[in-house]
Each structure stands twice: as C-alpha cells, then as structure tokens.
Amino acid sequence: xxxxxxxxxxxxxxxxxxxxxxxxxxxxxxxxxxxxxxxxxxxxxxxxxxxxxxxxxxxxxxxxxxxxxxxxxxxxxxxxxxxxxxxxxxxxxxxxxxxxxxxxxxxxxxxxxxxxxxxxxxxxxxxxxxxxxxxxxxxxxxxxxxxxxxxxxxxxxxxxxxxxxxxxxxxxxxxxxxxxxxxxxxxxxxxxxxxxxxxxxxxxxxxxxxxxxxxxxxxxxxxxxxxxxxxxxxxxxxxxxxxxxxxxxxxxxxxxxxxxxxxxxxxxxxxxxxxxxxxxxxxxxxxxxxxxxxxxxxxxxxxxxxxxxxxxxxxxxxxxxxxxxxxxxxxxxxxxxxxxxxxxx
Length: 345
Ligand code: 13P
Prior knowledge:
single chain; about 350 residues; alpha/beta; TIM Barrel; eight-stranded parallel beta barrel; 13 helices; binds 1,3-dihydroxyacetonephosphate
C-alpha cells in the first residue's frame, strides 16, 4: 500500500494551524432542507450550491477557516465559476473535506440508541474522494443521555465504527475527523454529561489504539461537557470550559494535535464563549478550536434568505462570526466584541 504519511502531515499541519478552525457545511440534504425551510428558503440542488458557494467564497475567510467539510452532493457540484467545488476551495486557500458516514440506524437491543453506518464500500469511496481533492473526512457517532443511556453496547459499537473508519482514512492519506457527539437534548446536568463524556472518549481512544490509528494525524471533534438544553441549572462558560478540559486531559493523549468542537445546538454566542473559556486555561497540549455548522452559519443563513441580493451582507456576517471564533480559539474573545459587532443579527 502507498505510504501517505507526507499527505497526512501536510493536511494536519494546515488544519491545526493556530487561530484557524473548520466550517462544517456537510449537512445532509434532509438536514439542510429543514434549516432552509425554517427560513422559507427553497431547498434544491441549485440553492444548496449557491449557499455553499457563498460561504466558501467569503472574502478573507481563509484567515480563520482552514478547511470546509462538504456533503457528497457539494463535492460533485460545479460552482458558478465553472470550477468543481474542491478546486474552488483550494483557490480560496481552504482544504476540502468530506462527510463519509451514511447516517444513523437503530442499534438492535438498545433503547432507541443509534449506530453510524457506512463502512461497507468505504475504502473505494475514500479512493474516489481523494482523486476528487478531499484531504480530510468526517464520521459522526451520536449518543443520547437518558435513563440507562448511552449503553455500554452503544459506546462500544460506535467506538469501533469510528476507529475502523479512521484507520481506513489514514490508509488512503485522508485525515479523519473523529466525531463522537453526545447530544445536548434532554434535562441532564453537566455532571451527568461529564461522566458520559469520560466513558465515551475513553472507549473511542481505546478503539483507536486497537486499530493502530496514528493519533498524530486525527482531529477529534467532540461535544462540549455541558448541561442538557432542558436542565434548569445552566452552566456558565467557565464551568463548561473547566469541565470539558478536565475530561479531555483524562482521556485524550497529547499526541492528538487538534480538537475541533461541534456546536451541537448551542447559540452562536454560547459556543464562542465556551471555546474561549477553555483556551483561557493554561497548559493544554492540543490546539482547541471549532468545527461548527450551526454556530457559524445561523446568522449568515438568516441574512441570506435565499436571495442573491443579500449574499454580500451574509458573507460579512459569516466572516465576523468566524473571526470571533478564531479569537476564542486563542482565548482572546470577549462578549464586548459581540456588541461592537453591529453586523450580528
Ligand atoms: P453543529 O455545529 O451544528 O453541531 O454541527 C457540527 C457537525 O458537523 C455535526 O456533525
């Protein structure tokens, strides 16, 4: 098999660059349609292409965004300039990535828990994505906190899935984003999320070790340690930052170069403030940055409204949000910057 170490080194060095993060623009058609329809935007292949083109061609965005995760539809689309999307991204100084999992299925013998599918044929798909320009990939596993969940079975099955995927990616010279998402839905406390996250990450890194995944060439994309959305006791940014970093220190080897969080349904401001709080804590061995979808895109999509006339204003909003998160990734964000940013809707 070809030795792709050089490719992996080059890609991870760019994605882990200080002050930069990743934009997740890889919503499945069903998910982006839901987001568009909530704003009365029609969801067609064309509107999805126009919206994603708007995001990646935002002037100056490569200062804050090193890579963009694409959905397969976008990877295969041609931008209005006639270029294929991966080409367009590269021209704008951004690395193209691709979501490669095939979504969630019910995991038998659990209480409504889910398993991520997509391993069959993955090796062939990775080879194809690489020829199309993808340098990195994403696979998302989900865990919900409830009575008796996540179960040991779900934690183990998903850890194995993530590790099998990650090993295959590296064999193809593609940097894997390993995404175990503990959902924010529910009324659980931050303490419960703390325990669950420790178990999940411990299992994930055990499986990565068993599959001989080179930790130097992965990106961990976890959820933050935070209270459930319906929990009355709302944790402060300081509490979220401290709890998250404590769990990461217990479970994530220092060999992992960068940890890029998902936003998971937090408001844009919360996601930024919580990331900043982590970066105020001294002595972290890894880069701590973002790989948000909603927290980066919400205000931008609301400003765009599906109308080309609003594209420039939407790009400005996106740029500002990315800049605030870049500042948070180096501990230099303050809420006062939100107020100064009159562009934020
Ligand atoms: P959110 O930031 O909206 O949680 O999305 C990140 C992501 O890529 C989910 O897989």
